[in-house]
């Protein structure tokens, strides 16, 4: 272990010097020394690969980046026959091979000819650092900045030396700041330096939220020098204060995000159950159908995963909506005036639908990929980052909600369905096409459940039990908000989401769930008709 | 408030602590007055349904309550029977029962019966059972479990069935009755309960002329022993039973007096009767 | 206008209407009378299509209605004011009235965005209560709303089931005037079930007496005499 | 009887169907193959499939049905521990024989059950050894679904880690309900816990359905396997097939079998499986191998005993050997647990595992953990003279079952 | 006249089925028991122990269905959480049985059940104390569900929580208990629950005679509860209960404190559910938090609906039939039984609005009509 560290450091130092010396060297001169190394790499076992990589790094410069990246992503292959490496790429579902340096497409290669060069976690860590080291001199400021930040945790002498050398020439403010931070960290940790310098450095550090800074400061609280300890403590305190504020925002976001999931899951039910009065136990399965639709859509357009969502949303709406219309026409419409019995029938339907997907798609979960634009997170600062998929889903939930409210407010459907649910016969006598209204409304509610399925497929399992896991929550949200009140559903979903997420850190997930349930039970005692009750003489 | 004051307040001599008061005290009608409604106010989202309403009903009186649609008659009954909470005011039954802190069942058990404007009966039970349920009996859980119909009770029900003309339909489900029959059944439910005070909301709606007459007779015969408050828009009917008539308007009393006085009251004519009706619409 | 031929009607096992015949002439005001429970409401519901009839035929302007759903009949021009009002309780007064607008626009060929002003002229109280829930209205207000709601449809035939139940005298009078006015000015055909003789006499032009699910007497209103009343209306 | 009957007691509906259906198919495939080879003892094997529908009491009922009505000679079944615990009394009462193919918490050894899945010492302990020794992990998050298997495994691990000098503050334990789907706060806590300077890893005993949202959240919060590797004991190829594995590459799992291991046996097995399911995309996994080994051993034992009589087969089972699909030989020990190799694999973007570490030889399954105070002194030995599943080596007594 | 007969055959007839039901129930169970105990296993009339336990389980479910029907069918309170009471009763029994294991557990600890040893608990939690006494455990089996029902009902009915709000709250209740019992800290064995029981009152639970005895006791208790419930529901209290179902506010206006009626009926129903649970556990051999799962509670409602709600006999028949169907379907078509069961629910709802008992009523009405016609002719 130690031995390896030393060699590593040695080589890093070496390669840092090389940046300066050979920054203009050409690919041609390198490849001569590179090729055998690459061949070696292709033949090596995972555990023998690191030294080879160190050597590769030592003899090359920025031009090696594509190679390292390809390797990091697991796309580097080795052509045994030619003793050459090649990158495998995929565009629109087609795999092809190209030279990682020249980007020349090599059409003469088939899958059996090549072997994947596998990497493991250690190698990936190494590769990332190597890339960062190389990128310190990248032309793009943001790449340089990331490189510096990447290296914060690995500040060894040579890196520091490089940074010190690059620092005066750095023109970009942000990069310079990051470098300054790294250097300050270095200064702060050097016990041989003057105390006043160290304390000044610590003060600089106190404005950063980087984890590495905090870890360094924590170590410094055990420093031999009392003044340094005090300064470190003060700085830590300052950082903690800022971090706590962001932690609160973080938690709030978690709550909103959970709320948006609850909202999506229950909004369709707010229509079929809340407005129409159908105790729709098959609601969960409508969500499930939506999720499976997403899966099928992705199957049909494997090369356009990024766009598949845009197809999946309308498709899921149609599939679940049509299924809803079908159920309404075949079953629900015969149960008018018997709302409790809709529970029985729709429960039966939910069993059938579950078994149906189990038969068609197997009982196993299906794989739904996330579009690249929905993956990852939006890093606001080192302690606050919001995951993109959740952010989109939050926005999406609100959008669906608004659209729904508009549909119900601005079209006659909303009015008619309420009239029908309050007095079917009288609605008929007023010329309302009750059959049509019922079918459309149930279809709308189901369709929205389907859309919810698309969103949920991005977060959780797509399997036959998907619906089951949301049905109870959905009913809870609708009832807590007040049956028949869409706004209530919205508020209830977010209330429950936020409450859960603020409880969770102290109580743990299980207890939080229990407490929220108990809270709902007690709350309903105070407000027996939910958050937004239907008022008036007729409401009882 | 000083401690002394609050202690005094606590031990005021004119007050009995609720838990010391006898649970089912007789209704005290010492002043010949059975119902006191004072300064009653109630508004729904800013709309004043009852507006400083005062109303006193004598024991044994038959009082007609009229007033425009929406004047607050039904709402008043809602407040008296505990269905609706008022914003301010007092409602006393006799001198000793504050109705405002009692719930519907307690009020009913005190002897206040009500017929609703829209007939409400237990649709899935027979006419007979509807009446049995309304009998004046101990209505607590255990006594109800062990009670059996006594012959006198059965006779009582039979009597009432005859009175309301549903003897033939005694075993029919109440839900299958026509609108008018339900009205009668509801009156019957009131009768078997033998309440002290009857609040009757539009009893003759949907009844034929003869039935209306019969209802009038029935109600007149009840008065004296019982106190009856009737709300009705059928002026002919009101005239045939009324001794005192109170007119409500926009949540407060507009006029009170005999039928003749009322019929000639300009305000009443304007807001309620209309010229012709005041002149006495002839059949 | 509407003719009813040999209509039988059952509730479960009990027959309510027995081979009932009834002819409603266009532009008439026909008053159907009878004791409680003889089947008046049942008959009106059958005309409106809210109850399936067992046998017989109901036609309107020569076309059979038997197969038509209630909503179709609303489009064909039948307006219905049910006994017990049947207001949509959780809809506001305005919404209660708006429900009929699509039918109205189809029937009048204009496409009104708004509730016709004449409804509010007839029942001013509805204007004040426009944003209150129907179910919160007082009984009489609801009755007015029910009539107003039927008039929004601009019907050819208006079916009224005891429309004066619970309505204050001056408005009863007013409703009578409205019926007469619509009948006179727009030729509205009216089928009216009414117990109160005074009103029936004032408004009705024809009367039909019912007993045990059959029409037992029919004539002009002038000819409704005491013996008939004694025979069919007294208890 | 003219056939030998094999009962299949796996849930085909309900929450567990997702995992158990595959095992039902595996048993059916094994039965098929055996019949093609001429059956057993000259008789055809007949499979009797029932559906206990993920309902635990139904496992007992269906078990009884299989044993008394269908008179099966052996049962292959159960996944969750609770379902096993539910049938167990029935098996012991009616002297049935069951093969249990799933990794579990240990602390059990019945005369009537053979445990072909991993005990904690065949999965958990080697996995943390790997984390500590090879990855230099110093902090551990023990995350699990709140039920017995994770609780016990974590208890074992906690004791083990503390024994290795890991401070209590460097162990974070977290339990979540079944099917937990909102992992935001927990993953964020893990992230914080892991960013405090020491190399951190997550040891996951998260069950089935909760895994997909867990890994998705990991991916989205940008926790890469280099920063905080997750080593899971309940995530296999089948679970991964329902997941987009790109963001998960590099996370780990510890099993006794991976589909990616290239041996002739495994190749044959996978081929047979694809042929049987008529689907070349179907993956194989560890409980399938456990089922495979169990079935082979049972067939051998029946042949050896010359009868399907439970007592005879039970004795004949002990010492049975079957080649592992991953190489080496599995041995049935006296405690009804197997000796098997332990492998650690990294998730690849094709949903397969790349073996990154394996034990030198096989590890014998330990029915009673050496790291739990209550069971330190217990051993299981179903051979004479002890013949007991929970024999206390201190008191020299056998508690519980008396046969 | 026809109305009168209609009244006799419908309105007041609830008590009419009682005697035949009790007779059939008891004779079938006694015959089955005898056939199990005294006939040789190869006799065609032999009833296997498997069948006996299965029937015993069905009877427990029937009792549970009765409990659901009493409050749903008669009082209109749709409880989607009755499984909670059932499970609590079951846990009480399970705790007793667990304590009876004594030192025969795998760890041989005389005091602590295995799962506590295993989680390294040192002493018995307070709520386990006394559970080794049969009488005490049985008291708890009715008291705990009863008390929970009382507290919950008292809160909910007094605040006038009704309709779907109440249903969903009951669901929340059982769901919360489900999560709570899953927690190992609770001291009820977590997900694994309580199992591996050895004996009850000194009788070996595995013995056929014990199983038969449990089965008979279940049948007898079912009969007793049936008769008592019948009596209660045909008393005036029964009418009040129906009145509450019809129109609760109207009942209040004639002087009934409906909340109290509802609370007591709810408690009664919960106690029955608790008893059913207590009988269920020794027969199936395990109690686990899964019994709290909301889906289970929904299923109970469905048994009642299939049988015909508002008739006690319907509830019993529904429970027996649906569970029998489940047993058969899962064995005959393990891959497709959910289709069959689901379809059954849908079809029953569509074509038998009042459940099987409604069908029975219709058939009888038809026959009566035919007979009436004949007699008139
Ligand atoms: N819950 C409520 N919300 C809003 N307004 C209400 C409510 N209840 C009653 N009102 C209003 O209060 C007024 C009084 O109603 P009330 O029913 O007491 O009238 P009423 O005198 O009984 O009339 P009618 O003779 O028509 O029955 C009406 O205008 C009604 O719209
Ligand atoms: N839903 C029903 N089920 C069974 N029978 C019914 C039903 N509705 C009405 N009936 C019966 O049908 C008969 C006629 O009822 P209908 O309502 O038509 O009478 P009506 O003439 O309108 O009486 P009213 O003047 O009281 O309104 C009544 O005897 C009633 O008992
Ligand atoms: N044994 C398990 N994984 O439950
Ligand atoms: Mg009124
Ligand atoms: Mg009528």
UniProtKB/TrEMBL annotation, chain A:
Belongs to the binding-protein-dependent transport system permease family. LivHM subfamily. The chain crosses the membrane at residues 252-279, 311-331, 343-361, 391-408, 475-499, 505-524. It is a multi-pass membrane protein. Residues 1-28 form the signal peptide. Keywords: Amino-acid transport, Cell membrane, Membrane, Signal, Transmembrane, Transmembrane helix, Transport. NCBIfam families: urea_trans_UrtB. It comes from Marinomonas hwangdonensis. One of its GO terms (biological process) is amino acid transport. Pfam families: BPD_transp_2 (PF02653). One of its GO terms (molecular function) is transmembrane transporter activity. One of its GO terms (cellular component) is plasma membrane. This is Urea ABC transporter permease subunit UrtB. SUPFAM superfamilies: ARM repeat. CDD domains: TM_PBP1_LivH_like. Its main location: membrane. It is found in: Cell inner membrane.
From TrEMBL, chain B:
One of its GO terms (molecular function) is ATP binding. Signal peptide: none annotated. Residues 35-275 form the ABC transporter domain. Gene3D superfamilies: P-loop containing nucleotide triphosphate hydrolases. Keywords: ATP-binding, Nucleotide-binding, Transport. The keyword Glycosyltransferase does not apply. One of its GO terms (cellular component) is plasma membrane. The keyword ATP-binding applies. This is Urea ABC transporter ATP-binding protein UrtD. It comes from Marinomonas hwangdonensis. The gene is urtD.
TrEMBL record, chain C:
InterPro entries: AAA+_ATPase, ABC_transporter-like_ATP-bd, ABC_transptr_urea_ATP-bd_UrtE, BCAA_Transport_ATP-bd_LivF, P-loop_NTPase. Pfam families: ABC_tran. Residues 2-235 form the ABC transporter domain. GO terms for molecular function: ATP binding; ATP hydrolysis activity; branched-chain amino acid transmembrane transporter activity. Keywords: Amino-acid transport, ATP-binding, Nucleotide-binding, Transport. GO terms for biological process: L-amino acid transport. It comes from the Bacteria. Transmembrane segments: none annotated. SMART domains: AAA. PANTHER family: HIGH-AFFINITY BRANCHED-CHAIN AMINO ACID TRANSPORT ATP-BINDING PROTEIN (PTHR43820:SF5), HIGH-AFFINITY BRANCHED-CHAIN AMINO ACID TRANSPORT ATP-BINDING PROTEIN LIVF (PTHR43820). Belongs to the ABC transporter superfamily. This is Urea ABC transporter ATP-binding subunit UrtE. It comes from Marinomonas hwangdonensis.
UniProtKB/TrEMBL annotation, chain E:
The chain crosses the membrane at residues 21-39, 45-64, 71-93, 134-157, 164-182, 212-229, 261-281, 301-324, 336-353. NCBIfam families: urea_trans_UrtC. Its main location: membrane. The keyword Transmembrane helix applies. Pfam families: BPD_transp_2 (PF02653). Keywords: Cell membrane, Membrane, Transmembrane, Transmembrane helix. It comes from Marinomonas hwangdonensis. InterPro entries: ABC_transp_permease (IPR001851), ABC_transptr_urea_perm_UrtC (IPR017778), LivM-like (IPR043428). The keyword Oxidoreductase does not apply. It is found in: Cell inner membrane. This is Urea ABC transporter permease subunit UrtC. The gene is urtC. One of its GO terms (molecular function) is branched-chain amino acid transmembrane transporter activity. It comes from the Bacteria. One of its GO terms (cellular component) is plasma membrane. It is a multi-pass membrane protein.
């Amino acid at each position: 272990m130690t031995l390896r560290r030393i060699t590593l450091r040695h080589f890093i130092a070496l390669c840092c010097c090389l940046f300066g010396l050979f920054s203009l060297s050409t690919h041609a001169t390198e490849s001569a020394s590179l090729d055998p190394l690459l061949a070696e790499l292709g033949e090596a076992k995972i555990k023998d690969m690191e030294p080879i990589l160190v050597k590769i790094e030592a003899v090359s410069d920025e031009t090696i980046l594509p190679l390292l990246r390809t390797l990091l992503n697991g796309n580097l292959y080795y052509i045994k026959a030619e003793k050459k490496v090649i990158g495998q790429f995929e565009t629109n579902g087609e795999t092809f091979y190209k030279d990682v340096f020249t980007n020349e497409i090599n059409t003469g290669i088939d899958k059996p000819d090549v072997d994947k060069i596998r990497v493991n976690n250690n190698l990936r860590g190494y590769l990332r650092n190597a890339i960062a080291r190389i990128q310190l001199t990248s032309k793009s400021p943001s790449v340089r900045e990331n490189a510096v930040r990447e290296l914060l945790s690995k500040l060894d002498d040579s890196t520091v030396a490089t940074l010190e050398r690059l620092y005066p020439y750095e023109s970009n403010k942000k990069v310079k700041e990051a470098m300054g931070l790294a250097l300050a960290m270095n200064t702060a940790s050097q016990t041989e330096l003057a105390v006043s310098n160290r304390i000044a450095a610590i003060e600089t550090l106190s404005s950063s939220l980087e984890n590495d800074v905090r870890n360094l400061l924590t170590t410094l609280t055990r420093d031999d020098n009392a003044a340094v300890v005090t300064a470190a403590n003060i700085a830590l305190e300052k950082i903690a204060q800022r971090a706590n504020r962001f932690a609160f925002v973080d938690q709030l976001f978690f709550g909103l995000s959970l709320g948006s999931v609850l909202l999506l899951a229950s909004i369709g039910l707010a229509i079929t159950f809340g407005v129409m009065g159908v105790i729709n136990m098959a609601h969960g399965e409508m969500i499930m159908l939506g999720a499976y639709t997403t899966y099928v859509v992705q199957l049909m357009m494997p090369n356009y995963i990024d766009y598949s969502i845009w197809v999946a949303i309308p498709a899921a709406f149609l599939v679940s909506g049509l299924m809803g219309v079908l159920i309404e026409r075949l079953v629900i419409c015969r149960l008018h005036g018997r709302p409790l019995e809709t529970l029985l029938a729709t429960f039966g339907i939910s069993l059938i639908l579950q078994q149906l997907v189990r038969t068609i798609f197997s009982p196993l979960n299906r794989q739904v990929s996330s579009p690249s634009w929905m993956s990852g997170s939006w890093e606001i600062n080192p302690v606050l980052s919001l995951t993109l998929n959740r952010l989109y889903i939050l926005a999406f939930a609100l959008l669906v909600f608004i659209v729904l409210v508009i549909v119900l407010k601005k079209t006659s459907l909303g009015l008619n369905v309420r009239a029908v649910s309050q007095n079917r016969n009288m609605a008929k006598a007023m010329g309302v096409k009750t059959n049509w209204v019922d079918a459309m409304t149930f279809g709308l509610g189901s369709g929205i459940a389907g859309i919810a399925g698309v969103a949920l497929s991005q977060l959780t399992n797509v399997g036959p039990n998907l619906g089951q896991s949301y049905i109870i929550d959905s009913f809870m949200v609708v009832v807590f908000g007040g049956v028949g009140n869409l706004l209530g559903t919205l508020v209830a979903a977010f209330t429950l989401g936020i409450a859960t997420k603020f409880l969770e850190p102290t109580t743990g997930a299980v207890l939080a769930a229990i407490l929220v349930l108990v809270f709902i039970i007690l709350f309903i005692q105070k407000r027996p008709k939910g958050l937004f009750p239907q008022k008036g003489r007729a409401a009882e | 408030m000083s401690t002394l004051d609050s202690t005094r307040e606590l031990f005021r001599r004119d007050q009995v602590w609720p838990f010391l008061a006898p649970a089912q005290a007789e209704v005290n009608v010492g002043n010949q007055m059975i119902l006191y409604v004072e300064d009653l106010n109630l508004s729904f989202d800013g709309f004043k349904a009852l507006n400083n309403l005062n109303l006193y009903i004598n024991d044994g009186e038959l009082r007609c309550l009229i007033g425009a649609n929406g004047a607050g008659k039904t709402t008043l009954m809602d407040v008296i029977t505990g269905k609706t909470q008022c914003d301010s005011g007092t409602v006393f039954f006799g001198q000793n029962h504050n109705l405002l802190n009692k719930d519907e069942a307690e009020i009913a058990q005190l002897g206040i019966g009500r017929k609703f404007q829209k007939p409400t009966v237990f649709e899935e039970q027979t006419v007979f059972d509807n009446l049995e349920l309304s009998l004046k009996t101990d209505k607590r859980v255990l006594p109800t479990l062990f009670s059996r119909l006594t012959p006198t009770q059965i006779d009582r029900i039979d009597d009432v069935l005859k009175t309301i003309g549903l003897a033939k339909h005694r075993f029919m489900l109440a839900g299958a009755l026509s609108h008018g029959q339900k009205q009668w059944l509801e009156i019957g439910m009131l009768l078997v309960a033998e309440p002290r005070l009857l609040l009757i909301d539009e009893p003759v709606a949907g009844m034929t002329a003869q039935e209306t007459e019969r209802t009038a007779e029935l109600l007149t015969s009840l008065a004296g022993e019982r106190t009856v408050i009737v709300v009705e828009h059928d002026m002919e009917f009101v005239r045939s039973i009324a001794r005192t008539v109170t007119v409500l308007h926009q949540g407060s009393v507009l006029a009170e007096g005999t039928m003749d006085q009322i019929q000639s009251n300009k305000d009443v004519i304007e807001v309620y009767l209309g010229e012709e009706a005041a002149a006495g619409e002839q059949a | 206008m509407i003719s009813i031929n040999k209509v039988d009607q059952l509730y479960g096992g009990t027959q309510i209407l027995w081979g009932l015949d009834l002819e409603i002439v266009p532009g008439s005001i026909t008053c159907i009378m009878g004791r409680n429970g003889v089947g008046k409401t049942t008959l009106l519901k059958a005309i409106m299509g809210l109850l399936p009839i067992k046998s017989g035929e109901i036609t309107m302007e020569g076309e059979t209605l038997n197969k038509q759903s209630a909503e179709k009949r609303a489009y064909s021009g039948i307006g219905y004011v049910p006994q017990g009002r049947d207001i949509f309780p959780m809809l506001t007064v305005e919404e209660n009235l708006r429900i009929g607008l699509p039918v109205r626009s189809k029937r009048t060929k204009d496409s009104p965005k708004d509730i016709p002003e004449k409804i509010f002229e007839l029942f001013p109280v509805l204007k004040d209560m426009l944003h209150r829930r129907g179910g919160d209205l007082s009984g009489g207000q609801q009755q007015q709303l029910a009539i107003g709601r039927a008039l929004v449809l601009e019907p050819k035939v208006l079916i009224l089931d005891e429309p004066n139940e619970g309505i204050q005298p001056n408005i009863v009078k007013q409703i009578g005037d409205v019926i007469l006015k619509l009948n006179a000015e727009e030729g509205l055909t009216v089928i009216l079930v009414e117990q109160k003789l005074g009103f029936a006499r004032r408004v009705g032009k024809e009367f039909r007496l019912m007993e045990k699910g059959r029409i037992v007497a029919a004539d002009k209103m002038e000819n409704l005499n005491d013996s008939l009343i004694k025979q069919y209306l007294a208890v | 009887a003219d056939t030998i009957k094999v009962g299949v007691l796996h849930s085909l509906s309900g929450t567990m169907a997702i995992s158990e259906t595959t095992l039902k198919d595996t048993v059916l495939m094994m039965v098929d193959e055996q019949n093609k080879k001429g059956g057993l003892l000259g008789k055809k094997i007949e499979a009797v499939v029932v559906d206990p529908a993920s309902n635990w009491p139904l496992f007992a009922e269906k078990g009884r049905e299989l044993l008394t009505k269908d008179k099966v000679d052996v049962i292959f079944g159960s996944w969750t521990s609770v379902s096993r615990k539910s049938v167990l009394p029935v098996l012991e009462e009616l002297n049935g024989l069951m093969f249990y193919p799933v990794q579990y918490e240990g602390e059990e050894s019945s005369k009537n059950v053979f445990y072909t899945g991993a005990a904690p010492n065949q999965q958990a302990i080697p996995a943390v050894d790997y984390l500590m020794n090879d990855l230099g992990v110093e902090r551990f998050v023990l995350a699990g679904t709140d039920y017995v298997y994770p609780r016990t495994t974590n208890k074992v691990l906690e004791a083990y880690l503390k024994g290795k000098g890991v401070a209590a503050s460097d162990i974070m334990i977290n339990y979540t309900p079944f099917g937990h789907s909102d992992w935001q706060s927990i993953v964020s806590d893990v992230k914080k816990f892991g960013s405090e300077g020491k190399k951190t890893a997550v040891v996951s005993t998260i069950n089935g359905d909760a895994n997909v949202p867990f890994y998705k959240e990991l991916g989205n919060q940008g926790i890469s396997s280099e920063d905080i590797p997750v080593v899971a004991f309940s995530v296999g190829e089948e679970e991964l097939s329902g997941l987009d594995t790109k963001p998960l590459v590099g996370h780990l799992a510890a099993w006794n079998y991976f589909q990616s291991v290239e041996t002739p046996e495994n190749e044959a097995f996978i081929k047979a499986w694809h042929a049987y399911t008529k689907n070349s995309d179907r993956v194989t996994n560890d409980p399938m191998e456990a089922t495979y080994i169990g079935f082979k051993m049972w067939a051998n034992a029946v042949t050896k005993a010359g009868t399907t009589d439970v007592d005879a087969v039970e004795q004949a089972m002990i010492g049975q050997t079957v080649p592992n699909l991953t190489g080496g030989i599995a041995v049935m020990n006296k405690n009804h647990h197997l000796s098997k190799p332990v492998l650690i694999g990294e998730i690849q973007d094709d949903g397969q595992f790349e073996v990154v570490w394996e034990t030198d030889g096989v590890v014998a399954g330990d029915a009673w953990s050496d790291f739990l105070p209550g069971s330190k002194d217990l051993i299981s030995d179903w051979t004479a003279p002890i013949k007991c599943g929970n024999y206390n080596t201190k008191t020299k007594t056998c508690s519980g079952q008396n046969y | 006249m026809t109305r009168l007969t209609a009244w006799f055959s419908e309105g007041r007839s609830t008590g009419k089925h009682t005697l035949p039901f009790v007779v059939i129930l008891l004779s079938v169970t006694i015959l089955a028991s005898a056939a199990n105990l005294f006939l040789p296993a190869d006799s065609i009339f032999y009833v296997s122990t498997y069948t006996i336990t299965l029937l015993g389980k069905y009877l427990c479910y029937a009792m549970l269905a009765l409990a659901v029907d009493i409050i749903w069918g008669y009082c209109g309170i749709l409880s989607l959480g009755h499984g909670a009471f059932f499970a609590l009763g079951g846990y009480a029994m399970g705790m007793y049985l667990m304590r009876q294991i004594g030192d025969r557990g795998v760890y041989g600890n005389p005091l602590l059940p295995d799962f506590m040893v295993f989680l390294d608990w040192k002493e018995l939690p307070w709520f386990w104390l006394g559970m080794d006494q049969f009488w005490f455990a049985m008291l708890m089996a009715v008291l705990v569900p009863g008390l929970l029902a009382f507290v919950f009902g008292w809160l909910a009915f007094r605040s006038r929580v009704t309709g779907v709000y109440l249903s969903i709250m009951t669901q929340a209740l059982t769901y919360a208990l489900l999560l709570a019992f899953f927690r190992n800290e609770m001291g009820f064995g977590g997900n694994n629950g309580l199992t591996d029981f050895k004996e009850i009152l000194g009788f070996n639970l595995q013995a056929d005679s014990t199983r038969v005895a449990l089965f008979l006791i279940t049948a007898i208790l079912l009969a007793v509860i049936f008769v008592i419930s019948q009596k209660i529901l045909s008393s005036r209290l029964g009418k009040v209960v129906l009145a509450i179902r019809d129109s609760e506010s109207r009942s209040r206006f004639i002087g009934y404190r409906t909340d109290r009626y509802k609370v007591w009926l709810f408690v009664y129903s919960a106690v029955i559910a608790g008893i059913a649970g207590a009988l269920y556990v020794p027969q199936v051999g395990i109690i686990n938090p899964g019994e709290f799962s909301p889906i289970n509670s929904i299923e109970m409602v469905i048994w009642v609906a299939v049988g015909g709600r508002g008739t006690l006999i319907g509830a019993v028949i529904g429970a027996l039939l649906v569970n029998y169907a489940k047993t058969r379907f899962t064995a005959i078509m393990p891959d497709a039984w959910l289709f069959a069961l689901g379809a059954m629910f849908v079809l029953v709802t569509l074509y038998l609005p009042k459940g099987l008992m409604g069908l029975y009523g219709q058939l009888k009405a038809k026959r009566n009509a035919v007979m009436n016609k004949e007699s008139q002719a």
